[in-house]
Design a protein that fits this description.
Elements: E1 6-9, E2 18-23, E3 26-31, H1 39-48, H2 50-55, H3 62-77, H4 82-88, H5 92-95, H6 97-100, H7 102-112
Antiparallel strand pairs: 1-2, 2-3
Helix pairs in contact: 1-3
Keywords: Hydrolase
InterPro entries: Class_I_gatase-like
Protein name: Gamma-glutamyl-L-1-hydroxyisopropylamide hydrolase
Amino acid sequence: MPPGATLLAGNRLTAVQAAEIRFDGGVFWGVQYHPETGLDEVAGALRRQADSLVEAGLARGEDDVEAYALQVDALHREPNRRDLAWRLGLDEQVTDERLRLAEMRNFIGALVRPGR
């Protein structure tokens, strides 16, 4: 992190997930992820980017991408399906909306705090 930055969030995989950076009179918040994006939107993005995923060698074909997207869709509909979360390599930081959006709630709360 740059000098003077404040760590706002981290997790088991990435020490810096969100930070506040003050520069030239401005206050900037940055995140390494998109907490506002639900799993249903992730599934749609996978489908839209199927060709790129195949080209990058992350899937063998569009059928592989679709099979993965179907699992992501299913987990969106049933976020307590630990079997799907395990298969997809996700944990409650993604599947539990309350936890996934915690940083956004904190950010909004910090913006409206007097003296900020």
